Amino acid sequence: MWRRIKSIGVLPPRRYFQQWIASRIDRRTETQFNQRRIYIVPSKAGLGLLLLFSITILLGINFQNNLVFMVAFWLLAMLTINILFTYRNLSGLTLRAIHAEPCFAGEKALFWFEITEHQGRERPSIHVGWEQQDAVVINLKAHETLRISLSHGTQARGWLIPERLTVITRFPTGLARAWGYFLPDVKAIVYPKPQLLPDGSAQTGADPNQSKGREIPRGSHDFSGIRSYRSGDSMKQIHWPQFAKTGHLASREFVDYEQAAQWLDWTHWQGQSDERVLAHFTARVIGFHRDNTPWGMQIPDQRFEMDVGEAHRVQTLTALALYGVKVP
Amino acid sequence: MTRPSDDGLRPSLGWRPLMQESQQLTRQGLLWLILSQLAVVGLFVTPMPIWVMPVMLLTATWRFRMLQKRWQLPSGWVKALAVLLSLGAVAVSDIHPLSLDAATILLLLGFSLKNLEMAQRRDAILAVYIGYFLVAVSFLFSQTLLATLTAILVLMLLTATLIGVQLTRPQPMIRTLKISSSLLVLSLPLMIVGYLFFPRLPPLWSVPMQQNQARTGISDSMSPGDFASIAGSGALAFRATFSGNPPQQVDRYWRGPVLTHFDGNTWTPTTAYVERRNFLPDRIQPSGSPVFQPNWQLGDAVGRYSVVYEPSNQWFAYSLTPSRVMNGEARVGQDFQVVATQKMDAPLRVEYEYYQNAVLDPVLSERERQATLQLPTGIEPRTRAFIEDLRIRHTDPQALILATLRWFQESPFYYTLSPGTLPTTNSVDAFLFDSKRGFCAHYAGAFVVMMRMAGIPARVVSGYQGGEWNEKGGFIAVHEFDAHAWVELWLPSAGWVAFDPTAWVAPERIEQNLRSAVADSGGFLNGSPLYALQFSWFNGLRLSVDAWQFRWQRWIMDYDQRGQSLFIARWLGNIDSTTAVAYALGFITLLGLFWIAALGLLQPHHSKDPIAAQWQMLREQLGRYGIDVDQQVTPSQLSSLLAGLSALQQQAIQQYANQLNRYLYHSDAPPYADIKRQYRNAIAALEPRWWKRALGFRHLFGR
Lengths: 328, 703
Hints:
Number of domains of chain A: 2
Shape of chain A: elongated
Helix content of chain A: 25-40%
Largest sheet of chain B: 6 strands, antiparallel
Helix content of chain B: 40-55%
Distance between the termini of chain A: 35 Å
Number of strands of chain B: 18
Largest sheet of chain A: 6 strands, antiparallel
Structural class of chain B: alpha+beta
Mean pLDDT of chain A: 82
Low-confidence stretches of chain A: 200-214
Oligomer: heterodimer
Radius of gyration of chain A: 30 Å
Low-confidence stretches of chain B: 1-21, 210-214, 277-290, 696-703
């Protein structure tokens, strides 16, 4: 079980600590938390308990009361062993990067991870997330593998290589905080932000009204005729005036028209900056794909022949996203 | 919330984080908190004024109703009113504002009122910490074994609360309790070492402590009727252990305040004594240099004994006569009475040596003689006439004393705890010649009046008589109902000699106990818990519990500075610092290993995901049948690849693949155990049985 939380919280911002951490972790698809990868410190509540311990000791000294000492040292001992309990809640967990879903710049990319419990212990209250981004809290059952998604904000097209993930737990008592890092070897493609250029439609040289192209039957746009009702026809299709007149159900038929093939050519946009052209192309590809219009694309060094469909859309958008981007 | 499915669609989670980072108190966390708060306040039911309890109940109820969404968070002025009312109640009550009692009450009230504004996890943690502190404070009021066990339970509840507020998903409360108890149990070794080796320092500053509740018990004055109310109390006064055999029941006279002055109705100590007592204990003087030097010839030492007094909030300690203080914060004061150097607001332990054939005050000072012959003028005419008559017949003081006691024995006196009321003037006359019904205070008081009239210096000694021998614990337990009053007469060359007129009237009171003395008239401990000691099985149980209580009390009390150095000398000897460091390091290592083993942290890490390992194994097995399963294939795609297998094998693998698919990608995931079983079936179907292999039929099953 997992659910989203606002933030993982902010960890020690000490510069040297961060540098030290960065030198200790490398990118990998999977990491298992063990004594080398788990950091643990008393939390603020733990420091508070230490203060309480001192006050209780003073009480014991002033009233010469051994049982007060007992309570005080019990609290101190609990504070100590709790560190191991908290460590145990993280120890042995495996975190694996599964895949990333592409998105458009400015949207959030979705990363999928899998977290696995191997040791047959329940692991409650584990927070996973990026320090400045999305975070979730999970409760793992024994031997459970859980898939979680984490979203990450994007700014520019290209590859989004996320920074390290933080996994924190304060279970059981909140007196200590154990955490570890995972630098996932995963990257998301960020498509350019779609943005039509002002004179976009004119420049393509195609007028949708001029040529409607081949008819695609059983569409939903244009009315083509009336036929008798067949079971399975939707309510929207029923021609009610006919029903009122004759008492027989009749359905209206529609057709769609295949749009005239569209061609996106880089050379038409020589005056514009590269980014604006990429944004424009992206917007057009989205539109073509939505309207089921075949499109082809020519950008420097790459040419995509006329085609339709999801795979074509991904290919062309990826090419736009990675135009001029060095392979990391 | 269900697990997101892996059907390629984005989960319907939206792009903004749905939940705020949960610093809010969860429902279960709150329930834990209310529970442990009630438990903490429960620790204070006996020592604290009773009105604190309803405040807690009220705020807990309010909080609970809020949890049920029935009531709202109280508004600011309600909270302010509650705080003002609480402060007002403390101010109006007769509790000293700077005492420990007042501080405790304020802490308890704050603890209760915190309920009305608690919303965050932080608040709950603070409340738990105050709870921990209050558990420690409760030990200032009671240190019995029972109190300790109760407090440990409360500690467990508080720790469970700390866990409960951390949980992001509710779990069965018993699981939370299990974690909290394993935390506390595993921290025991470290706690014990800290307890044993933490240096016992003298108090850093003194804090006034005030026992709010007046205990029943002997006070330093005596009027008729006082002792009857004490007799109704089964509270423990003190316990005594003896190095040799304890004295016989009839010899156990525990000396308390000596009452010399009589105003016709009430017996009080001499003014000199009152003054001395009032200034003496405030300055703590080393017990080796007493201001007051008792005037005695001690005679033969009989043995040593040690007494642990229950907190009485009084100065006087009770001892056999005569006793010398060997160790402890007390000393022998005026009238050979032992006085503690501080008011006994905590258990006090004193060691004594006692003597026989002693002479107390071989010479009586003139002032003392006057004080012990004092009587208001013109009172008790009938008694005076009676004594004058007796004096004519017995000129020798000893003969006179004996004659008087014999008169007590032969006249129809009746020992009872409910003697009826006596007139306030000439009460001795009315008692001796009219009612003839009374208990120790009446007999002792009347006897002293008679002796003073006869010119013999006399005084009343109050204290306890008898006590219950606890075989299991090896101690004498003296309870409030053992309270007694007897008489001391000064005889030339013999000094102060004790006489007990009650013994002549009701010998069973002295030889056995109060219960046998009033057996026929009843009225003994009716309605008190000890009433049940009529049942013998219960009495056995009570004695065992009491023995354990005493053992516990001595363990706890004896471990002071001296006890600590004795303990270290006994177990570690004279160790140098190198050895001490070695011991410490050894202990830390052992403890660390113990903890790591106890927490199961030695378990080897499985580097592979069990599901991935299964999948890998299945692919290898299928490979033996010439079926190449690509790494990218998902369980749901597997069925299309199984064409070459037997129907049985296909079925087993298909079942496994279906389960796995559901396990990995669906919200209604089957338990892992199911997957494991299906996996074993699938592998078993693919792997030829050994006998089939041996018979060379492998090809029949294979392709």
